[in-house]
Amino acid sequence: MKLKVYADRMSQPSRAVIIFCKVNVIDYEEIKVLISKGQHLTSEFAEINPMKRLPAIVDGRFKLFESHAILIYLACAFPGVADHWYPADVAKRSRIHSVLDWHHSNLRRGADTYVSNATIAPVVGRPLNPQAAAEAETLLSSSLSKLESFWLKDAGRFLLGGNQPSIADLSLVCEIMELEVLDEKDRARFLGPHKKVQRWIENTRSATNPHFDEVHEVCRH
Amino acid sequence: MKLKVYSYRRSQPVRAVIIFCKVNGIEFEEVRVDIAKREHCTPEFSEINPLNQLPAIVDGEFKLFESHAILIYLACSYPGVADHWYPSDIFKRSKIHSVLDWHHSNLRRGPVTIVQNSVVAPVFHRTFNPERVAEGEKILSAALSKIESFWLEGNGPFLLGVNQPSIADLSLVCDIMQLELLDEADRNRLLGLLTIKSYKMIHRL
Prior knowledge:
With 221 residues, chain A is of the alpha+beta class. Chain A has helices at residues 12-23, 43-48, 67-77, 90-120, 130-151, 167-177, 184-191, 195-208, 211-215; strands at residues 3-7, 28-32, 56-59, 62-65.
């Protein structure tokens, strides 16, 4: 039975999982669950994930949600996934856990809250909240600064000084790509000051293309 | 060179790491960093963790922060840590990752928001903010319901229905224990949200 990936390509963590599968030639079936149509709230989907969040996977009888847990599971369970995605070395792996954990309360919270409150909320039936957007903007700016000055401080092309991408690069860059739904001025305001971040986004994109661009088409409409 | 754990015991994730070390007989030196005195912002501590957060560890030349990453590192690196803390079985391990990830945006945010905007607000140079406290209570209440109805499903007394604790139990329970900082009336009201299953888990741990 093929791996099933329940995803909405408008969801940043869904994109990371889909791209990972495509790049690593993991055979899977993508089952689209559209958040804008409330499909994640149905009783059918609750059977897959009672928390009603995306992405979620079903591998045989094994169900899993939370994108970082999924990426780690896929890296370990599927043969042919190169070591750089989730290294076996404990120290390297720990550093990847460290940035993935930092991500939850920093880049993800900043980017997701800002974009939701500034633009997407009406699509999913919620009112815009300028105060939340202002706070999220501060968090997003400070997260991008920390990426620039700390997570990307070493010589390599990717996070933590790596020369090849890991699941952390994929997860965080997919988050930043959410900013594509903003207008160009807004996006330039956030990303403009950070040259290393911009280079890193490009590096991650080239390392995972053509899949990266194909999966991100939804952000451009 | 002994493992160093940079610690502030009022911090929930710090407590999870310290308890884990003690329970597993991991030899370590506890280096106290007083957040109330802003010792986490000194140049000395920035050398340890440029993001100025606790807990952080130094093991030989290896530095690490973020408590979940630390717990996993310790479970993998130190001999004698029993498998149930962080099982080698990929399915069990993935479920632990899943609850630890869920924790960041759910249970953890609840007590932190309540406590930082009320009793310990002055430590963070904030004033009492009832709106934020109310938000924190909503998050906490939703998270506790999910723990009760989903994560504690199954026969065992611990998260994911198992019979022995994992690093996930330790991490989440330390967050719930943060409510001990509140006055008794508030604490009882919020902990009243916990029902039988959650109490059993906390006390078994």
